[in-house]
Specification:
Structural class: alpha+beta
Strand content: 25-35%
CATH class: Alpha Beta
Order of helices and strands: HHEEHEEEEH
Low-confidence stretches: 1-6
CATH topology: SMI1/KNR4-like
Number of domains: 1
């Protein structure tokens, strides 16, 4: 029987993240990758955060973070992507859920790379180029700032 060491597990998770980036053709922000490497399945985070949506300050709580892991204990990001990718820009990567069904997203495109957004499911964007997408609101300028904002 082969026993995995912590270094072996980290290497395997690192390889899994590289494969995930290649599959989705994205470059994940280093802060987010570091978090995933340390958390193993990413799902352990809980906490509440404040945000401003359409000029109104509000608060919600993270209920679950998604994970690129194939581990059955995690909420698999690839399965979620097939359902939720249609609702926002292809450069937005869903990374978690809030208590009221909204989705936390990480910007992976050139503009605003690494920003964390909250997608408000009640305000789903129709995709019409003439219509402004108001379904997203900025939560943090990077993943570490998001983690620091959790209470």
């Amino acid at each position: 029987m082969v026993e995995l060491t912590i270094d072996d597990e980290l290497a395997a998770r690192g390889q899994q993240l590289l494969e995930f980036e290649e599959l989705l053709k994205v470059k994940l922000p280093e802060q987010y990758k570091d978090f995933l490497l340390k958390q193993s399945n990413g799902a352990l985070l809980r906490g509440c955060f404040e945000y401003v949506f359409l000029g109104v300050k509000d608060e919600t709580c993270v209920t679950r973070l998604l994970s690129p892991s194939q581990d059955e204990k995690s909420v698999n990001l690839l399965r979620i992507l097939t359902d939720d990718r249609r609702t926002f820009s292809a450069t937005m990567l869903p990374i978690g859920y809030t208590m009221n069904g909204d989705i936390l997203c990480l910007e992976t495109g050139v503009d605003n790379y690494g920003n964390v957004y909250l997608w408000k499911h009640e305000w789903e964007y129709s995709g019409d180029e003439d219509e402004e997408d108001v379904s997203m609101c900025l939560v943090a300028r990077d993943f570490d700032s998001f983690l620091s904002s959790l209470k």
